[in-house]
Specification:
metal-binding; Metallo-beta-lactamase, Chain A; RibonucZ/Hydroxyglut_hydro; 5 helices; alpha/beta; globular; 31% strand; six-stranded mixed sheet; 212 residues
Length: 212
């Protein structure tokens, strides 16, 4: 079995939302449904997909802005690390009150399930490992399955997530990348929260912020 991954760049911050499906089947789950998920919803309905879950790499507003719309449309549960459990219901904590020129306050109902380090999620017939990768935010997680890594706002192509927001910590971010993400196989493809895809091997050789 193999994964098929569609990318949607959503909202004013161009947040990468991923629709992950089992090739040739109609089961899927969503990673980080950002603001304005209309195109995502249309693709799901056009393909007749059954959505098993929404997985949040973290709960900043640009990653969770479409949660309620998607959850109501498909009746699927939300997974989020416990350290950010109350961010979905608190517009100040998820950052949506910080940039009034970008969005109004955003809140949603709490997540149904918690994510934790080492957890094995079984979705669409595949196993996904949860890595707790704090630094950009305290509850940031990365999701791994085979050669696929969804890194949220931890690791980008030749860049890293910002650490100047509440709960961010540069040392934790660098530790997360070096001790967890850089331990993955070099050919592991990285699907970040913003910007183009990359690989672990390329970042180990070329990332100016966190060299191997």
């Amino acid at each position: 079995m193999s994964l098929h991954i569609d990318t949607f760049s959503l909202g004013p911050l161009q947040t990468n939302c991923y629709l992950v499906t089992e090739t040739n089947e109609n089961r899927a789950f969503i990673i980080d449904p950002g603001m304005g998920p209309k195109r995502l919803l249309e693709r799901i309905k056009d393909r007749g997909l059954t959505i098993e879950a929404i997985v949040l790499t973290h709960a900043h507003f640009d990653h969770m802005g479409g949660v309620e719309e998607v959850r109501k449309a498909f009746g699927c549960p939300v997974y989020l690390h416990d350290l950010e459990a109350d961010w979905l219901t608190d517009a100040k904590k998820n950052g949506s009150t910080r940039w009034p020129d970008v969005t109004g306050p955003l809140t949603t109902e709490p997540a149904e399930f918690a994510l934790a380090e080492g957890q094995q999620l079984t979705l669409i017939g595949h196993t996904f490992q949860v890595l707790h990768t704090p630094g950009h935010s305290p509850g940031s997680v990365s999701i791994v399955s085979g050669e696929h890594l969804f890194s949220g706002d931890v690791l980008f192509r030749q860049s890293v997530g910002r650490t100047d927001l509440p709960g961010g910590r540069e040392r934790d971010l660098f530790d997360s990348i070096r001790t967890k993400l850089y331990k993955l196989a070099p050919n592991t493809r990285v699907y970040p929260g913003h910007g183009p895809q990359t690989t672990i091997g390329f970042e180990m050789a070329n990332n100016p912020y966190v060299p191997a």
